[in-house]
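Team,

Forwarding the record for the chain on the shared tracking sheet. I've put the sequence and predicted structure together so nobody has to dig through attachments.
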Amino acid sequence: MAKKRPQKKAAGAPQVTNGEVPVVGAREPCPCGSGRRYKACHGRAAAHAVTELVQRPFEGLAGECDWVALRELVPAATAPLRLKGGLPEGVPSVTLATVLPMAWPALRRDDGSVLLALQNDTSSGDLSRDLADTLQRALEAEPGTPVAARRVPAEGPRLQDLLDAEAGFEPVVHTGFEFWVPESADDASPEVAASLERANAAAIPTVKLPGVDAAYWCETPDKNHLRWVMPHPEEQLLDALARLHAAGTSSLGEGTRLVGSFRAHGLVVPVWDLPSSMSAEDCEKPAAEFAERLAGALASDAPLTADERRARGGLTNRQVTLS
């Protein structure tokens, strides 16, 4: 076998001595001076870090369950965000939004305020890092300009590094996307107006229940639903739901049925079918009563009975992963 030639350092390549290797094109010489292409040297670890999936990107943020709901379930909603150390000069507010016109990742309004979109596609496996990168660029953007999508560097801050952990998270669910256009604006551009019309036409009426955390009622043509993002560990929650299901106490009243669950961003989202006549207000008391029953089931550490194991199998078979 032929011997491999020792690799030479690229002529004129910068020698990195402080451990910081800049990101360059995949086929360019690695800035570390090894003589290899970036993708075969430091770019390999960087690419792995960018693509590695973070199962719970919102873990550690206030209102993690509501972050998941706004990302996956709620058409139109906003929530004010508070930054560590306060707002930069010239930025009166930062607001999270489910989506923005033309699928912009973020927008710096004319008055300097920032809107950050949550439901856009992202380039890496860490949604928190992608959003933090977009937020930082929005804070520095010129007023009146949207922020474009880009591939996020492998290392950088996450939302958990930028947002004030002591601040609450209070989503406001809207009936439409009129929040895109500030009240002070005389009129929206034709592009924004067209995007607004399309978004409003597609929005499913959704209401956040006030009496329990992260439960959202929605109306569809055939039936209504309640989708409830829960913070409990998946195995423990499925056991508890199985106990209630086997006991006949997993519904929210006559004509309702626990039909399964989603798995989204590391959390489980049980879903109930509701009669079309059951409004969000009608759900409030049954949901609060269910929360009490669930707390009791979660506290039990007894082995599942045969009926409960069958119920658990049925719930697991009807589980869908969204992310």
